[in-house]
């Protein structure tokens, strides 16, 4: 009997559907015990987000200052063979509840010495967040084996409109010629193929040999055009997060003027900087091609294309 722990926090419900569909072959197997841990912040996050609350979440997300969680239901006394960590990306960083889990003593006990698979459902920029997750998993004593990334099927420019609309209003359907926000339903429905591969690997004991279990399944695909844009976004968010923190703790009235400036910056970036960056990368693609291919290969590991 193999024991698998799946840990997730899903604000919109999309990630929960992805995670449960992915592990459904494990849930249906008679030789696997599947334990689900839903992370519960002491102060629940609203959905849809109020506009200012959404912006006010940025500094703590970027600075990896996680929220307090309710006690976990899973117990570390029973050894798990595999841990699946399904997380969202907030402001190019892992969502706070998952960071809280990885930095908690209870979370570290559950991960120590375990094989780990990360699962992401986000707009399209997850590279920096996954680099952070690699470090947090390593610090917790876990061993990352695979990463599976589910992303919004729309273009980078269209998702700058459809994703905030979903977050702030709860409406994700297609409109005005733009596609629906979020991961496509067909992609979610097909997520169980990764669960079947994990089930086969567990039955063969491959969770103990240190190699990826999902190689060759297209588990993570990187859009080369977004690599440089994401790096620039991370640097900007790091500066803004420290600046906004000068206004006080989360929820402080002193933050409001700084958050207003940050919102203007975001709009200006989306309208001017992002299109200009994409155009510049297209013009320089022959010079950057080799470097971007190398970075794509790195970010797609360990599971690769």
Concise synopsis of the structure shown:
The chain is α/β, with parallel strands linked by helices.
Please give a structural write-up:
It is a single chain. The protein has 305 residues and is of the alpha/beta class. The chain has a single domain, classed as Flavodoxin domain (Rossmann fold, 3-Layer(aba) Sandwich), CATH 3.40.50. It is 48% helix and 13% strand. It has twelve helices and seven strands. It has helices at 14-22, 24-27, 51-56, 58-62, 96-103, 105-111, 127-139, 156-169, 185-189, 192-203, 227-245, 256-300; strands spanning 2-8, 32-38, 82-87, 89-90, 93-94, 115-122, 143-151. The strands form two sheets. Strands 2-1-3-6-7 form a five-stranded parallel sheet, sandwiched between helices. Helix 5 (96-103) packs across helix 6 (105-111) and helix 11 packs antiparallel against helix 12 (256-300). The longest helix has 45 residues, at 256-300. The two termini are 31 Å apart.
Strand segment tally: 7
Question: Which spans have pLDDT < 50 for at least 5 consecutive residues?
Answer: none
Number of helices in the DSSP assignment: 12
CATH domain class name: Alpha Beta
The dominant shape is: globular
- What is the total number of structural domains? 1
Mean pLDDT reading: 91
Instruction: State the separation between the terminal residues, measured CA to CA.
Output: 31 Å
CATH topology: Rossmann fold
The proportion of residues in beta strands is 5-15%
CATH architecture: 3-Layer(aba) Sandwich
Break the fold down into its secondary structure elements and pairings:
Blueprint: E1 2-8, H1 14-22, H2 24-27, E2 32-38, H3 51-56, H4 58-62, E3 82-87, E4 89-90, E5 93-94, H5 96-103, H6 105-111, E6 115-122, H7 127-139, E7 143-151, H8 156-169, H9 185-189, H10 192-203, H11 227-245, H12 256-300
Parallel strand pairs: 1-2, 1-3, 3-6, 6-7
Antiparallel strand pairs: 4-5
């Amino acid at each position: 009997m193999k024991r698998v722990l799946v840990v997730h926090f899903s604000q919109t419900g999309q990630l929960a559907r992805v995670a449960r569909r992915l592990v459904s072959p494990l849930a249906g197997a008679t030789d696997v015990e599947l334990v689900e841990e839903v992370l519960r912040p002491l102060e629940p996050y609203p959905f849809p987000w109020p506009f200012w609350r959404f912006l006010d979440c940025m500094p703590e997300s970027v600075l990896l200052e996680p929220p307090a969680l309710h006690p976990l239901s899973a117990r570390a006394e029973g050894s798990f063979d595999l841990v699946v960590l399904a997380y969202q990306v907030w402001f190019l960083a892992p969502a706070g509840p998952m960071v809280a889990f990885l930095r908690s003593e209870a979370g570290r006990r559950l991960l120590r010495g375990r094989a780990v698979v990360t699962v992401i459902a986000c707009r399209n920029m997850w590279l920096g967040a996954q680099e952070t997750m690699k470090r947090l998993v390593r610090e917790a004593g876990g061993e990352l084996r695979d990463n599976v990334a589910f992303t919004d099927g729309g273009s980078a420019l269209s998702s700058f409109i459809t994703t905030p609309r979903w977050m702030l209003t709860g409406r994700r359907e297609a409109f005005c010629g733009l596609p629906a926000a979020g991961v496509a339903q067909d992609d979610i429905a097909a997520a169980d193929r990764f669960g079947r591969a994990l089930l086969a690997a567990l039955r063969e004991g491959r969770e103990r040999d240190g190699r990826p279990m999902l190689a060759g399944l297209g588990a993570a695909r990187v859009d080369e055009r977004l690599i440089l844009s994401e790096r620039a976004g991370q640097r900007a968010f790091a500066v803004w997060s420290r600046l906004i923190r000068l206004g006080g703790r989360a929820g402080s009235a002193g933050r409001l003027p700084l958050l207003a400036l940050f919102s203007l910056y975001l709009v200006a970036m989306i309208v001017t900087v992002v299109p200009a960056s994409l155009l510049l990368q297209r013009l320089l693609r022959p010079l950057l091609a080799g470097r971007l291919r190398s970075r794509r290969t790195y970010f797609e590991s360990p599971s690769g294309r």
